C-alpha cells in the first residue's frame, strides 16, 4: 500500500514538473540549482538523474565534464517506470563495437522509428532490408556521373549567380548579416534543386521565409523534446495536439503537401521526356533508375525529407561554425590564404575565372584539416542513438540489456582529452596533416562526425567537395568580420546550429 502511494505521489510530482517546464513555462529560460549537477548528476529516488538533465537542457549534448568523470561512459538513470534509462558513451572502443564489429546487434529500432516517425520509411529511419535497399539506391545515385555533375552545377551556379552577388551587395551597403541564415538558405535552395524541384529562391535580398524551412526547424526542436520527455507524455500531447506535438503535426502536413507536388511535377516531366539527359536529379534517379520497385509517392516523400535533412543543415552548420572558428583563429585563416595562393592562384583582373577542376580542391590539405577540425569540435549531427537487440557487454565493461538505448554524444566526444589529447579544445588543423604533408586519417569511430561502419554517411565526399567549393570562393573574394560581443552557443536540436546565429560584415578583397 505504502509503495503504491509513493508511486502515485512520484507520478503526480513528475507530471507536474514536466507540465510546468514544457507546457506552462517557456523552455530553455530557467536556471535551477545548476552548479550542483555540473559534474556528477545525482541519482535521486524516483526522479533518477532527470533533474540533472533538466538543468542542462540548453546544452544537452555537452557532457564533457560528466563523461570525463565517468571514464567516457555514463549509465544515465531516468525517472522510475518511464523507460528513460540510457547508456551514454563517447568511448571510441565502444563506438567501434556498436557501429562496426557488433553492428547487427545495434539497430535504430522501433523506439527510434517512433520518435522519428515524421521521416517515415526513409533511410534515416530504416533498419535491415529496407535500409540495405535504400543505401544501395543512394550509393548508385551518388556514384552516377550525371547526378554528380548536376549537384556540382547546382552548387556552383547558386554560388556564382546568387550568393556572391548577394555578398557584394552586403559589402557595398555595409550590412550586418546573419551568416548562418544565409548558409541555411543557400543549402536549402541547392538541396531542393538537387532533388529536381524548382528553385525556391529563398536566397534573395528580401530573405523571405519558406514554409518547408519553417517546418524543418519545428521538427528538429520537437524531436529533441521527444527524447527528453517520457513516452506517455509526448504521446498524450500528440493525442491532444498540444505544444511541440502540434507543430509536428503541422510540419508533417507541410511535408506531405510540398513533397506531393514535387513528385507529381517530376512524374509529369518524366512522362513528357522534358528533362535534360546529361543531368540527373534525385527524383528522376529514384523514379527512373532506382533499385526500388515499386517506388510509391509516399516513399518518395520520405526520401525527399530525409535528403534535405542530410544535405542541407549539415553543410550550413559546418560553414557557420567554420567561419566563426576562423575569426577566433586568425593564424589558421592566414595559412589557408597561403595555401589558396599557392595552389589556386587567381588573377586580380580576371573576375570571369573559369571554375576549378574539382581535382584541384584535393591539393588543399590544410583547408581539409581545418574543416575536419571544425566538425570535430562542432559536429553537425551532435548525437547518435542505437538500440540493442540482444544483451551484450561493451569493451568498457558496461552491460547492455536487450532493447535498451545507447546514445553517443558526438559533440562531447570531439572535446574529450582522453580521445584527442590535452589540446582537445584547441582548433588545430595541423592535427590532420601527416608528417609527409598529406591528409592524416583518423578512424571513423574516433572522428565520428560522419558516423562509422555500415551506416556511415553516404554523402561525405559530396559534402567535402561542396564545403571546399563554397569556402574557397568566399575566402578568395571577401574578408569577413564577425561582429564583436555576440553570444555564441550551440542550440540543442537534431543539428548543431548556433543558437543566436552569427552576425558578420563583408568587405571585398
Ligand atoms: C558536413 C556534412 C555532413 C555530415 C557531417 C553528415 C553526417 C552524417 C551522419 C552523422 C549520418 C548518420 C545519421 C544517422 O544514422 O542517424 C549521416 C547519414 C547520411 N548522410 Fe550525411 N552528412 C553530411 C552531408 C551529407 C550530404 C551532403 C549528403 C548527400 C547526399 C548526405 C547523405 C547521407 C545519407 C544518405 C545518410 C544516411 C545513411 C544511413 O542511414 O545509412 N550527408 N550523415
Automatic annotation (TrEMBL):
Keywords carried by this UniProt record: Heme, Iron, Membrane, Metal-binding, Monooxygenase, Oxidoreductase, Transmembrane, Transmembrane helix
Binding site for heme: 457
TM regions (residue ranges): 6-24
GO molecular function, one term: monooxygenase activity
Pfam families per record: p450
PROSITE patterns (UniProt xref): CYTOCHROME_P450
Keyword Heme among UniProt keywords: yes
Family annotation (InterPro entries): Cyt_P450, Cyt_P450_CS, Cyt_P450_E_grp-I, Cyt_P450_sf
Cofactor: heme
GO BP field: lipid metabolic process
PANTHER family given in the database record: CYTOCHROME P450 (PTHR24296)
Family: Belongs to the cytochrome P450 family.
Protein's name according to its UniProt entry: Cytochrome P450
Amino acid at each position: 500500500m505504502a509503495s503504491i502511494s509513493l508511486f502515485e505521489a512520484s507520478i503526480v510530482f513528475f507530471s507536474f514538473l514536466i507540465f510546468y517546464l514544457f507546457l506552462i513555462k517557456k523552455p530553455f529560460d530557467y536556471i535551477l540549482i545548476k552548479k550542483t549537477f555540473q559534474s556528477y548528476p545525482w541519482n535521486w529516488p524516483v526522479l533518477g538523474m532527470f533533474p540533472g538533465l533538466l538543468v542542462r537542457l540548453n546544452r544537452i549534448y555537452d557532457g564533457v565534464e560528466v563523461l570525463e568523470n565517468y571514464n567516457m561512459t555514463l549509465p544515465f538513470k531516468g525517472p522510475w517506470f518511464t523507460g528513460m534509462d540510457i547508456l551514454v558513451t563517447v568511448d571510441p572502443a565502444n563506438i567501434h563495437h556498436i557501429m562496426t564489429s557488433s553492428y547487427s546487434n545495434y539497430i535504430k529500432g522501433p523506439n527510434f522509428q517512433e520518435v522519428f516517425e515524421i521521416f517515415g520509411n526513409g533511410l534515416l529511419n530504416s533498419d535491415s532490408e529496407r535500409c540495405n535497399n535504400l543505401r544501395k539506391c543512394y550509393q548508385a545515385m551518388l556514384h552516377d556521373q550525371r547526378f554528380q555533375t548536376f549537384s556540382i552545377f547546382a552548387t556552383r551556379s547558386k554560388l556564382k549567380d546568387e550568393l556572391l552577388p548577394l555578398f557584394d551587395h552586403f559589402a557595398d551597403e555595409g550590412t550586418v548579416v546573419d551568416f548562418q541564415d544565409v548558409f541555411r538558405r543557400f543549402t536549402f535552395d541547392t538541396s531542393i534543386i538537387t532533388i529536381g524541384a524548382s528553385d525556391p529562391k529563398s536566397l534573395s535580398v528580401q530573405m523571405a521565409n519558406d514554409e518547408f524551412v519553417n517546418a524543418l526547424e519545428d521538427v528538429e526542436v520537437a524531436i529533441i523534446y521527444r527524447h527528453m520527455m517520457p513516452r506517455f507524455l509526448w504521446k498524450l500531447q500528440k493525442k491532444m495536439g498540444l505544444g511541440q506535438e502540434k507543430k509536428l503535426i503541422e510540419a508533417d502536413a507541410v511535408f506531405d503537401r510540398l513533397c506531393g507536388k514535387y513528385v507529381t511535377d517530376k512524374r509529369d516531366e518524366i512522362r513528357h521526356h522534358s528533362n535534360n539527359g546529361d543531368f540527373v536529379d534525385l527524383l528522376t534517379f529514384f523514379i527512373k533508375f532506382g533499385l526500388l520497385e515499386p517506388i510509391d509517392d509516399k516513399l518518395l516523400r520520405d526520401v525527399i525529407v530525409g535528403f534535405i535533412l542530410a544535405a542541407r543543415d549539415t553543410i550550413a552548420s559546418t560553414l557557420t561554425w567554420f567561419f566563426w572558428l576562423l575569426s577566433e583563429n586568425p593564424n589558421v585563416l592566414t595559412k589557408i590564404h597561403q595555401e589558396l595562393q599557392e595552389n589556386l592562384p587567381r588573377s586580380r583582373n580576371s573576375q570571369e575565372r573559369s571554375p576549378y577542376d574539382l581535382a584541384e580542391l584535393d591539393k588543399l590539405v590544410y583547408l581539409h584539416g581545418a574543416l575536419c577540425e571544425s566538425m570535430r569540435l562542432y559536429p553537425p549531427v551532435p548525437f547518435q542513438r542505437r538500440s540493442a537487440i540482444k544483451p551484450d557487454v561493451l569493451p568498457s565493461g558496461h552491460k547492455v540489456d536487450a532493447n535498451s538505448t545507447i546514445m553517443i554524444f558526438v559533440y562531447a566526444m570531439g572535446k574529450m582529452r582522453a580521445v584527442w589529447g590535452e589540446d582537445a579544445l584547441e582548433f588545430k588543423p595541423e592535427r590532420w596533416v601527416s608528417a609527409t604533408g598529406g591528409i592524416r586519417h583518423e578512424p571513423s569511430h574516433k572522428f565520428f562526425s560522419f558516423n562509422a561502419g555500415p551506416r556511415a554517411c553516404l554523402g561525405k565526399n559530396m559534402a567535402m567537395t561542396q564545403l571546399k567549393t563554397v569556402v574557397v570562393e568566399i575566402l578568395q573574394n571577401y574578408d569577413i568580420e564577425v561582429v564583436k560581443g555576440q553570444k555564441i552557443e550551440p542550440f540543442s536540436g537534431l543539428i548543431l546550429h548556433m543558437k543566436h546565429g552569427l552576425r558578420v560584415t563583408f568587405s571585398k578583397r
